[in-house]
Specification:
Elements: H1 12-19, H2 25-45, H3 48-55, H4 60-83
Amino acid sequence: MMRIKIDIECAPEEARAFLGLPDVRPMQDALLLQVQNRMSETLHAMEPEAMFKAWLPMGIVGVEEIWKAFLKQMDVSGNKGKSA
């Protein structure tokens, strides 16, 4: 059995041209720009103020209402436990 090993050093662009493959650099650049824009928008949305507004649209009033409902539920469950 005979083995033949050939090492070819070339740039990716040279390999694509040699194999007759299309140049995809413009498409890659466009896609990378879109990814960069989306990541920037996502990071902007992760600012503390924006996150607080998204999570609690009613602001502090909403937090107070949630807390009141929580305390009311705890009081109801506490009363049931005492009467039983």
